[in-house]
Design goal:
single chain, alpha+beta, six-stranded mixed beta sheet, four-stranded antiparallel beta sheet, 14 strands
């Protein structure tokens, strides 16, 4: 790393020639007009601009590069430097002071507009405190108007008008020939302008032409992870650099791929294709209209690829651990990504089918999106071996232990790696040791009381298990719920005993009204009939369903409800009975007993 001080004029020439470019992961710039005017004032006063930072390429850019906005004429030039910090400042100065076109900026309301920048010579030779006021911008036609464009305030559309008004066009500041021609026109109008020009030259132009830009230059050997960290720390935009964006630029800059295929690799296009295929098959991965990063994200996919790659490397004794940290993603070569991405995409398709078997088909009903990453990686590693007898049972048990034990609620990267290795070992029976996610998972009986919203994975998990074990809707009662019927009939968890009824008749138990124990998967149509006492609304539901009353109790039983507790509107007995049945359901899914509360606590709520 080296710190150089470069003349601004030389830096702007490097921008124009393409010597200095941007890595493609840099987001587009657009500073507002006021900030540009203040920036120009800083340069004319020779005040510090702040350090900029660039990465030396060593002749070969590690990323696909692009020119700064306005310097598109240099596209195709191999850059020597990639700008990591200072894009807004240098782009603004390049457009305002170097090129012969208006600057693309925005007004105070964020509306796009194009402006030319001038400096009022009379104010510029005054006190430094007036310098901000000396810098002005005018529209693309160089005519400043007021009163809804009815009155001309300042017309700078010709050199003669500029000279007469005493406004110097700042895009000439580094063009010696054109600046001298403007100078001659200025003094020709009035010979007294000689003295004013001399002052202007001393107090403004000399400052601009000698202005220094301190630049930190990172060596070409700087690692990708370090570049990413440096970029995030020095940029003030507050938006973290996405690994996907960095890999997009890295893969697009891969010269081997370019030479072999005649075009750069487009990671976003490949991800769009993969995500579109996944969401068209399984809506649990997200809705296409919500965007590519809604639901299953590019980061999730890259982490799964990294898990498979590092697992292979460990098996080949090329590394000691399986990993999917950001560093591992940044070190993912394009060749390995292209080799593994189809396998991982197929694995996610399998994951979508697995979730459907668990009756999880909609993105809002998915307990943990993060848990899909190791699941897909394991499937990609096992391949057809995942179809062997007994494998599905172990994967299913692992999945439900993760959901109901709420094992994926905190930091997940270390659990990803343990689960991949341990689940594969458990499936293959190498050591017979169950994964930590299975061994450590526990479901406390008391947890049922506090499962009240979708914020909990276990809440969503019990919802899916109720459907999976054969729940029948209370209005469309001709068949058990299926993924298709859930979507068709707008099925959701709905209250069994209405909250208002509980508050009136069992006020001491109002805190339990929103518990998962008092909810069950029902259609929107059935939910409309659930008002007042269950003893009353059940009669209406029986009539609406067209079912014989003596058979309807069997429908209630598919929801793990003792029908007499509803007919008698006995909330306390209902709650205790259903809680026990839900605990049995949880125990069956996890393949292990739950942890019960002390018997001394069961007398009170």
């Amino acid at each position: 790393m080296a710190l150089d001080s470069l003349k601004l004029s030389d830096v702007l020439k490097d921008v124009a020639s393409g010597v200095l470019q941007l890595p493609d992961f840099q987001r587009d710039w657009k500073w507002d007009d006021e900030r540009i005017r203040m920036l120009i004032a800083t340069v004319t006063l020779d005040y510090p601009l702040g350090v900029v930072m660039a990465l030396q390429t060593g002749g070969t850019s590690p990323f696909k590069a692009r020119t700064l906005k306005g310097a598109e004429g240099a596209e195709g030039t191999a850059p020597d430097l990639l700008l990591l910090d200072g894009q807004q400042r240098l782009t603004s100065l390049y457009q305002a002071l170097h090129r012969d076109r208006p600057v693309e900026t925005v007004d105070a309301r964020g509306k796009d507009w194009k402006r030319w920048y001038y400096i009022d010579i009379a104010k510029a030779v005054g006190t430094p405190a007036e310098r901000d006021e000396a810098i002005i911008s005018v529209p693309e036609d160089r005519v400043l108007k007021s009163d809804f464009a009815r009155n001309v305030v300042l017309d700078l559309s010709t050199v003669e008008n500029e000279c007469a008004a005493g406004y110097f066009p700042l895009n000439l500041a580094f063009d010696t020939q054109r600046m001298n021609a403007w100078h001659k026109a200025f003094v020709k109008i009035d010979e007294s302008n000689w003295d004013r020009w001399s002052q202007f030259e001393e107090l403004v132009l000399n400052h601009m032409q000698s202005f220094q830009v301190p630049m930190i230059k990172l060596a070409a050997s700087t690692t990708m992870d370090a570049v990413c960290a440096v970029f995030e720390r020095v940029n003030q935009g507050g938006v973290p650099l996405n690994v996907f964006e960095l890999l997009t630029a890295t893969y697009a800059g891969n010269q081997e791929h370019l030479a072999r295929h005649g075009d750069y690799y487009r990671l976003p296009a490949e991800w769009k294709r993969i995500k579109t295929e996944l969401t068209s098959s399984h809506s649990v991965f997200g809705r296409p209209e919500a965007g590519l990063e809604a639901g299953l994200s590019s980061s999730d996919f890259l982490q799964a690829v990294a898990l498979v790659r590092t697992w292979e490397q460990k098996q080949a004794r090329l590394r000691t651990s399986v990993a999917c940290k950001r560093r591992d993603l940044l070190e993912l070569p394009l060749a390995d990504f292209r080799r593994l991405a189809p396998r991982v995409a197929d694995a996610f398709q399998w994951v979508g089918g697995f979730l459907e078997q668990q009756c999880i088909v909609r993105a809002p009903d998915l307990p943990y999106q993060t848990q899909l990453v190791p699941l897909a990686a394991v499937r990609a590693i096992l391949g057809d071996e995942a179809n062997s007898p007994g494998v599905d049972e172990r994967i299913t048990q692992w999945y439900w232990c993760g959901v109901l034990g709420e094992m994926y609620g905190g930091s997940t990267e270390s659990r990803f790696t343990r689960d991949v290795e341990q689940l594969i070992g458990w499936i293959r029976g190498a050591d017979g040791v169950m994964p930590d996610t299975v061994a450590e998972a526990a479901f406390l009986e008391d947890r049922l009381d506090t499962l009240t919203t979708r914020n909990s994975a276990a809440y969503k998990g019990i919802y899916a298990l109720l459907v999976k074990q054969g729940a029948v809707d209370w209005h469309f009662a001709d068949a058990p719920l299926t993924p298709e019927r859930m979507v068709e009939h707008y099925v959701d968890l709905r209250l069994i005993f209405p909250k208002t009824w509980i508050a009136k008749n069992y006020s001491a138990y109002s805190a339990r009204a929103n518990s998962i124990v008092n909810k069950t998967p029902l259609s929107y149509r059935a939910g409309r009939s659930i008002t007042g006492s269950p003893a009353v609304y059940l009669k209406s539901l029986v009539l609406e369903s067209g079912m014989r009353p003596e058979w309807y109790d069997d429908v209630l039983a598919t929801h793990l409800i003792e029908s007499s507790t509803l007919h008698e509107a006995d909330f306390e007995r209902f709650y205790d009975n259903r809680a026990k049945q839900l605990l049995d359901l949880v125990m069956s899914a996890m393949g292990k007993r739950t942890v019960f509360r002390d018997t001394s606590d069961t007398a009170g709520w």
